[in-house]
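I hope you will forgive my troubling you with a question about protein structure. You will find the record immediately after this paragraph.
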Amino acid sequence: MDKFKFSKKSFVYIIIILLILYIIFFDSASFYKTDRIKHKLVSLQHDIEELKKDNEQLKLENEKLENDKNIWEEKARELGMQKKGEEIYIFKESEGL
């Protein structure tokens, strides 16, 4: 039973090690949590940049639609609309081939 006896010095070392482990992994400002937050921040900043690019693209498209009536006609034709007096022919692919 002598080999399992702790001295005061080894008890202090164990307490210090446990305290350091607590600070690293479980504390609210732990290195682990801080690292996870930094990775999440980088990911969110990337998402923001992508959304800014999408927003800019939509603004340009909106400006084109406001200024160019030919684009209105093109978009309407993509949706299957027609001008007055026009006939539209829709060709379907045959399924037997």
Q: What stands out?
A: The chain has a mean pLDDT of 84. The two ends are 87 Å apart (CA to CA).
